[in-house]
Amino acid sequence: MTTIGPSDPPFSNSGSDKVNIGQYFNQSGEIVDCWLDHLMPPVDVDPPIIHEAMRYSLFAGGKRLRPILAMATGELFGVSEEDLLPAACTLEMIHTYSLIHDDLPAMDDDDLRRGMPTCHVRYGEAIAILAGDALLTQAFITLSTTPIKDPLIRIALLRELSTASGTINALIGGQVLDLTSEGKRVSGAELEMIHRAKTGALIRCAVRMGALIGGASSRELTALTTYGEKIGLAFQIADDLLDETATTAQLGKTAGKDAATKKATYTSLYGLDGAQQLARRVVEEAHASLHQLDLDITRLEAIARFIIDRQS
Questions:
Q1: Do the beta carbons of residue 85 and residue 32 sit within 8 Å?
Q2: For a tag site, which of 16, 89, 134, 138 has the least CB within 10 Å?
Q3: More confidently predicted of 251 and 83
Q4: Nearest in space to 210 (alpha carbons), one of 91, 71, 81
């Protein structure tokens, strides 16, 4: 997984309450990886090639942002690791499946992901497609078989994850809009619609799943949903900025690919300075939504700031 240096500055929501977000991501990422290893089929189970390919992409690295968001939100309500992690890990399974398919020749046609050959380069297109399909399926196997005390919460979690992975204002629909907008002029509203779906839906889902497991009230869930939507948008703006300013080595994937394929991006629409200003404003709006809560929001504020300050 991507390591964030221990010297990275902590962020705070006040002068006295501070959290070292780099340390939190490193420690939480290790916990997520342990749970993923436990939840995934072993390589030595038939057919081994598909389980190897699934694990190859799942453990290729990454910040584990989505499961960590679910963890951090659930922790607001005092939920234990054991009650949070199986559901949180399903988000990483869905995310990795989407990356495998996104890298395919029929989609973005990329040979590098997280600094390693993409799944189809390593295993061939057929196995890569099936590895993505299998990770998507494994997410729902995991969520449907994990012990959850309240069956209504299990149903709510299944609804959240399936809706966020679908076509209406969700992951697949956003990918379709992204593909069909290549080479076309899009408005700010159209660009936001693409990325609220493609990138934002699963990030919003992560926050909502943590809140649902924690038993959040309607008011708390509304505020946290707004937070999730805002940071999902901020994440995409930051991605567009990094595609313009970072190197392939920093990104772990081909830099400048969006410009080369004439994708609709925040930097192409607003320029570097405009996109940076927009990212900061969206994070301020995310913070404002958290201030409606009578909870310790320090960590979630720090995660929002990390999203736009990251270097990869």
A1: yes
A2: 16
A3: 83
A4: 71
